[in-house]
Each structure stands twice: as structure tokens, then as C-alpha cells.
Design a protein that fits this description.
Blueprint (H helix, E strand, L loop, with lengths): L1 H21 L46 H4 L2 E3 L12 H13 L5 E6 L6 H21 L7 E7 L10 H7 L1 E5 L4
Parallel strand pairs: 2-3
Antiparallel strand pairs: 1-4, 2-4
Helix pairs in contact: 3-4
Length: 181
């Protein structure tokens, strides 16, 4: 009897497998559309205000601000063998003098320079005269004695390395230098 049961079980399994592989499967019916989700509830108004920003605004002083005229325009240029301030630079000197007058804790150096022509001694003396004339003008417009110092570099610190009038004109100058910080 065990043999009959085993044989009939195998025959039944074979028939089922044969029936599954030959019958096409119909696609399932499309399900009914899902109901629309309910609108999300609006949160209740909060009684606490948004936290204040912890980012602080940094304001640079004019002499450190690269967009400021105080920062951009710091050189007074001179004619050959001369140390008088040209009228074109009066506004620049006035602006720096008034700025120093309004900022009593700030101090600057006025650095006089000369082109390469002339002896080293002559160029040092000419650079000093250029620095001193700018220093005196700064004081007229409000700078104090303890805020300004005149030094000369002579021909030692050229900004242009050429050996022609265009380069020499750039090297005949007095620079107003502010502290780095």
C-alpha cells in the first residue's frame, strides 16, 4: 500500500506541475485607487521666536578695508628733484590727515623714496624731505605729532625696476604706511 500511495502522490505532483507551466497567467485586476491622504495638520504657532543669529558683523577700519580710499590711495608722487606736494595730491593728504585726527590711537609712517639717479646720500636726503613735507601736511589736516613719523628709504625700495622715466616717476614718492592690524 505504501507503493500505491507513493505512486499516486508522484502522479498528482506531476499533473500539477504540468498544469502550471502550460496555462497562461492572467494579469491581476488593477486595485482600486487609494484614498487621498489627509492634509498634514499645520503646526501650532510657536510662542518662542527664532533664535538670534550668533554671526557677528565685522567692520574693518578704513585703513584695512581694501575698498576704502584710505586703503587704496597712500602714495604722493613727486617731480624730478622736487619735494613739493602737487595739487593733485592735496585731497589724498587731507583725507589721511582727517582720518588720523579722528583716530587718535592710530599711528603711521611716511616713507620717502627717490629714483635711482643721484648718489645714495642725496637720495636719502631727498626721500627724507619728501616724507617730512607729507608729514607736515598731514598735521595741518588733523594728525598729531605722536601719530606720524617720517623716514627715508632713498632709492632702496623702488616699486618699478625699469631704468626709464616711467619707472623713475613711480619711484619718486612718499608712502603713508599704516600698521598691518
Amino acid at each position: 500500500m505504501n507503493r500505491n500511495t507513493l505512486g499516486s502522490t508522484l502522479a498528482l505532483a506531476g499533473a500539477l506541475l504540468a498544469a502550471c507551466s502550460s496555462t497562461p497567467v492572467a494579469p491581476p485586476a488593477s486595485p482600486a485607487p487609494a484614498p487621498a491622504p489627509a492634509a498634514a495638520p499645520t503646526p501650532a504657532p510657536s510662542s518662542t521666536a527664532a533664535p538670534a543669529s550668533t554671526v557677528s558683523t565685522v567692520t574693518l577700519p578704513a585703513y584695512l578695508d581694501p575698498n576704502s580710499a584710505i586703503s587704496k590711495e597712500r602714495s604722493v608722487f613727486f617731480d624730478f628733484d622736487d619735494y613739493s606736494i602737487k595739487p593733485a595730491y592735496t585731497g589724498l593728504v587731507e583725507r589721511h590727515g582727517r582720518y588720523l585726527g579722528a583716530n587718535a590711537k592710530l599711528a603711521v609712517k611716511v616713507e620717502g623714496n627717490a629714483d635711482e639717479r643721484g648718489s645714495a646720500e642725496y637720495n636719502l636726503a631727498l626721500g627724507q624731505k619728501r616724507a617730512e613735507v607729507v608729514l607736515k601736511a598731514l598735521k595741518i589736516y588733523g594728525a598729531r605729532d605722536n601719530q606720524v613719523e617720517a623716514v627715508s628709504w632713498g632709492e632702496e625700495r623702488p616699486v618699478a625696476s625699469g631704468h626709464d622715466e616711467a619707472a623713475w616717476a613711480q619711484n619718486r614718492r612718499a608712502d603713508i604706511t599704516y600698521p598691518k592690524q
